[in-house]
Batch of 2 targets.
Target 1
Amino acid sequence: MVKAPRGTQDIFGNSSAIWQRIEATAIKLFNEAGFQEIRTPIFESSELFSRAVGESSDIVNKEMYTFNDRSERSLTLRPEGTAGVVRAFIENSFDREGLPAKLWYRGPMFRYERPQTGRYRQFHQIGIEAIGAKAPYIDLEIIKLGVNFIQDLGLTNLTLHINSLGNSSSRENYIAALKVFLKESLEHVCEDCQRRYEQNPLRCLDCKVPEDQKIYQNAPTIIKYLDEESQKIWQETQNGLTELGIKYQIDEKLVRGLDYYTHVVFELKTKSEKLAGQNTVLAGGRYDNLVKNLGGGDYASVGWALGIERIATLIEETHQISKLYIISDSPIEALKLADKLRLETKKIAIELAYEETKFKKQLEKAIKRDYQWALFYLSEERNSGLFKLKNLRENKEYDKLDYSQVLELL
RNA sequence: GCAGGUGUCGCCAAGUGGUUAAGGCUCCGGUUUGUGGUACCGGCACUCGUGGGUUCAAGUCCCAUCAUCUGCCCCA
């Protein structure tokens, strides 16, 4: 039997209802804040990602779904959303429409990784980007939208972690200082850290090995290396969060896996056990150099992305709309009635039996499938023009109703 | 990419080398025609993830492969 490829899954039933709720919640929030949807291609030139995400990142090194098409172009299934959005921003000259460009997107992303709880090879993100906005107030708006999103879904038990990576020169100075520190104890740390030292020294800081962590306790922190400008932005961001009543936790070891981040970076993490080790459900930050690096103007930007699968795992259940089942001995008459009812009722699903099965079977089906209502529409009702309606959950029956009374009850 | 666990019907699950692969739930049909999830009857794995091998004999042993789970790496 042919199965879905490793790391992919079918979404249906209750999960699908939860996904719809997640997407509807996000879309409402984005519309209210004046963000516009953008749909970019699912595959792009491979070069876009190696330039945007960074040659040293794990994503580019070992996780991309890259292939050559029939004309030998190297293409890649997008591993994240920001690169494509920025490419579209530049290509379509969005800067002429006025800045910042406030955009949101959703859709599948692809990374060739070992599948696990909360980790898939095809996974889905919803993200927002504000391109061409330097003021820290846009960071605050973006972060607030993430926090509101979580709240609107009724999720608790999430913590906002933030850190600053500073501007390019602060970051360079810090990395230089960090490398000096790391070099002293390079022989005593794990192999991964020795590799990180070469490739991405920042990542050493969130190493999981306890012995290594002991050593890193004395490492210089990035905050001390922020230059005046970066320091000022960092202060304003924190003040703003407090003003907005957003609780946060400074995490000096939060460095993120993509190379394009600058200044503020943040993650919303859950304490729930349901996601095993994958406890980050929403993450983002500022990327002031990315647009320029991809050939656009010098536009500072900020954004985040959330993982739909991870959020969905945290949501237990969702309310389905109530349903009505038409019990009839004539499918065509039931179909005509269903059509009419669908036009004239709101927020109720109208269903019927398509085959001429027995009365009792139809009623049992309605009960088993958890329909709230059964509407009797057999020859007797059709002749009299009066309906019988039953609330199956409350076991209440309403007899001899005319059509308008049926509508009132639903 | 590395280390370990698991794979018998849609779901749960017995089976530990020997004739026709328990059982439960769900599902489908019926118990002569318009009212409740009950009860009763019947149906639903030529096959044990897949492919090889060992054996007179394999769901049961061996190898490979695939899938899945857990930890690491990393990430949403």
Target 2
Amino acid sequence: MNFIGRIFFTSRLIMKVYDFLEIEKKWQQYWDEHKTFKVPDETSKPKYYVLDMFPYPSGAGLHVGHPEGYTATDIICRYKRMKGFNVLHPMGWDAFGLPAERYAMRTGTHPRVTTQKNIDNFRRQIKSLGFSYDWDREIDTTDPGYYKWTQWIFLQLFKKGLAYLHESPVNFCPTCRTVLANEEVYSGRCDQGHEVIRKPMRQWMLRITAYADRLMNDLDEVDWPESIKKLQRDWIGRSEGAEVDFLISPDDQIRAWGKGCEVEAWKSNRRTSKWPESPESYTLRIYTTRPDTLYGATYMVLSPEHPLVEKIVTPERRQAVLDYCAQARNKSDLERTELSKEKTGEFTGAYAVNPVNGKPIPIWVADYVLISYGTGAIMAVPAHDQRDWEFATKFNLPIIQVIEGGEIGSQAYEGDGRLINSESPVSTSINGLNVSDAKKKITAWLEEHGIGKTAVKYKLRDWLFSRQRYWGEPFPILFDEQGNPTPVDESELPVALPELADFQPAKTGESPLANAEDWLIVKRDGRTYRRDTNTMPQWAGSCWYYLRYLDPKNNNAAWDPAEEKYWMPVDLYVGGAEHAVLHLLYARFWHKVLFDLGLVSTKEPFKKLFNQGMILSFAYKDSRGAYVNFNDIDFSGDKPKSKTTGEVLVESIEKMSKSLGNVINPDDVVAEYGADTLRLYEMAMGPLQATKPWNTRDLSGVHRFLHRVWRMIIDVDSGELHSSIQDVEPGEDELRLLHKTIKKVGDDIEGMNFNTAISAMIIFVNEMLNKPVKSKSTMEKFVQILSPFAPHISEELWRKLGHTDTLAYEAWPKYDQALAEDASVEVPVQVNGKVRSRLVVPADVDEETLKQLALADERVKESIGDKQVRKVIIAKRRLVNLVIG
RNA sequence: GCCGAAGUGGCGGAAUUGGCAGACGCGCGGGAUUCAAAAUCCCGUUCUGGCAACAGAGUGUGGGUUCGAUUCCCACCUUCGGCACCA
């Protein structure tokens, strides 16, 4: 270091500039030691429960996306505390999951060890940002003291008949050796990108479909973004239509079952017996949303898995049909999706009789009909359903138009219109009606004759709840020698994960738990049982964690009902939109079950939901299209260049990802700029819900703001309060600015418009910074409103202003509406919509005065010239527009 | 293909019920301070023309409603997110 440099270095030490590293360390320690944010045990104050979606503690550590939502909720919490609320703001870990298990399979390190390490790192990182969590309520889904209660809730589901075993083809990833729910398969691949196949297995299912209606209807009661509600409604996918029975033609019946039933005899029998719960063996039940098109049905389709296929197929078609079904069964989801453009199918040789006109129509089998929806069988109306139209066109099946409109030659017509070709001596006529009336009339006829019934169906399927993994909650279930499930006694909970040395799945395809022999076999009352070797999916722990926070250390119950009554529902839930459907739907489902059991007092768990947007990052590609890591880029010139080749790189905006080399680590940002700057920057970037790019360059803007805040209050030479700050009444300008800022910041926090709140505070500081006299009370109030955003610097300044206690519980400053408005306003005067002059007038000026002032203005007069003023439009305090002509 | 969100300066973004487009920040240009630099401060910064006063254009595109449209209506284009044969 040269002489000059040494002087500079020394002067920096002497100057008391904003030293964020020291300040942040000091206050984080203070909050920790004083347990500043421990929720007080009192119920007299109004409560406010703010929940962050708890993270999966990955090995990669915190991502700048995490603190975005956490900062927003922290601002709200700190604000609400100052507003007199008793605030619950907890944090925890959704810590079961595959990465730790994969790591264990590779290295033999127990997932608990990896998980603990990652949690410690996440906690350190989160704490370094100064969030006001009550750390005494920290939870961890992998803690036996936690998953004991996850298992307990499962037992309640089981006892209520909402959990059942089901053997069916499931989505299986051979690489991960695990089963996936439908919604965990994306275009035929698992989340690791491996191809998923279908495999029959005995699995736990949760009967979420029993709650479909309530999950749909109760969305009306919550304050969620409409787009998220719509996603959930579409996912539940309620549709109204009719089930209709078609008699399989007598010849085909005789072949399949050795007896025949005449159409008219069947119909007459149905008329008296009415609609049966399940159809006779020789009847094909279909579901349709378009019973009005019944006369246009020209063929039937069974899904390849439909049990009737095998029964009705004719000997000459048998080989082809069974081959087709086998092929469909073995197809992975990927193949099914990829081949979806071209329709395939086989004719079974059998016929069904259309109940409304007695005509026989061929029964086909095709994989465009899904076994899991409706009845797994349809009537095909090619004239009015595009999928049926494509199929009929390919296989030369007849197309009968029954609704006027469209161009049936080129595509199906799915719109409304007048019914045609729809009458028959054996039933009723719906000719001439519109679609909706035709539906009503034909459904009434079907119901009267016991042949059909209105029906409601959902896209929502029951929830596949088993995984063949180690690192999850074991099922508290024992199987007897016959394979019947018996619940473990509640007193034996938790069923803890056994210690294992090897985490590879069992050779049978079962989870690694099947290898834990000592654990696996248990004796009860002299009988031998085998434990369930499955574990629960990662969603299980997150389905109820918001309830455990209420009473996290309770060993006798999942939570205390009194705590639940006081705190629930969650007032504000903030997290990423990627959980819009699954997590939120599953948690709502469990919550409703708990509600029915009388264990919670609200129908819905999350009153208000807010989705933060994703933070993207710039990425740089060279001419070959390869991404270049930030570390290898020279940003010093006007264009980014590769450090190695000097080549100018092409910029794009992408998701942050290791492979693109564009990940921002919050630790680096905190070290260079401090937590307060990071918090402020994340909030100043733009609206919370928007997707927006990270730009490290922009950090300096808010960082400089904090430096100015510091210099506004502190004399950097002495480190003490600046001499301009005096114990005096503020002047009018200062008072107006202060009240305006208090109002704006408070309103913006309530509306979650943090970016504009910050901008208002910047304006305040820019205005006040160099004032020779500043009222101490003004400075104190400013520090208070700044504190939710930048709590460390605010606590430090609060102390410098002479206070000895934390400012976290100081009352939020009040504003006077009259002072929050400007005394005079500048009103633009337009002539034919163009601004020609501006008037400075008192804010309460009346319209007539304003009009006269405008007309008297020299520049306005000039613009009007000799033209006539036809109309004067006055928007009070906003504008005057003179229409001339 | 269907559904949803969004298109505003060089960049992130701001704009009450339809009422001054571009707040605030970044970047950039100029200046002060400095032997010099960093930091800091001041001024300017939508585009076009002009020394300037000022004039004209301007919120994805094209229309419409209105005294007045970033805002409301219609059609289209682009980007991002979700779903994907659900009968």
